[in-house]
Design a protein that fits this description.
Elements lengths: L1 H12 L2 H7 L2 E2 L3 E2 L2 E2 L11 E5 L6 E6 L2 E7 H5 L3 H16 L10 H15 L5 H5 L2 H4 L12 H13 L13
Helix pairs in contact: 4-5, 5-8
The structure holds zinc ion.
Zinc ion (ZN) binds next to helix 4 and helix 5.
């Protein structure tokens, strides 16, 4: 809610881009020690707000026309760096694939797959890194909104890593 209010405020004062950075909305956040970037399906810069008490590791949304990734730094800190990157790319994928506008029951799986494909394509994580994600998903029961239960999710992500449908467009690092 804090971020929401903040962004609404920015929309009113205008000059959102400069203001946003000043308020902690990062264009190139450091995730697991790696500077990351994300652009949405329109090519717009996605800004990242590192926060706490989010209720989830990350969340993708559009607030006052600004595409935003919120990350819970407390939750991220408990994860290996490569998995932190995976989650950032998962949230980025929701922007890349337009889920923030039109979510579907397939969105969570598609975002996982995109993140795995992109991570492989960009050399952000190895197969061994992805195998190492499994214990961190194991306790999850999944959700009604399309998150697979932990073991299934791990297998799904690894399968995406192994069998990319196509090369993901270079939204993040090449711009
Ligand atoms: Zn998601």
């Amino acid at each position: 809610m804090k971020a929401f209010a903040l962004l609404l405020g920015l929309a009113l004062v205008g000059g959102a881009a400069c203001q946003a950075q000043a308020e902690g909305l990062e264009v190139q956040p450091l995730i697991g020690g790696t500077p990351m970037r994300c652009h949405d399906f329109r090519g717009a810069v996605v800004r990242t707000l590192q926060t706490t008490e989010l209720g989830d590791v990350g969340r993708a949304s559009i607030v006052a026309r600004v595409p935003v990734i919120q990350l819970d730094t407390d939750r991220l800190a408990k994860l290996p760096p490569k998995l932190q990157i995976f989650f950032f790319m998962h949230e980025c994928a929701h922007h890349v694939l337009g889920h923030v506008i039109r979510p579907t029951l397939q969105s969570e799986r598609d975002a996982d797959c995109w993140s795995a494909n992109y991570g492989r394509w960009a050399g952000l994580f190895s197969r061994k890194d992805v195998e190492g994600f499994a214990p961190f998903f194991a306790a999850s029961n999944g959700s009604k909104f399309g998150h697979l239960p932990g073991a299934e999710r791990s297998a799904y992500i690894l399968n995406c890593f192994d069998k990319p449908e196509s090369e993901p467009v270079a939204y993040s690092l090449s711009r």
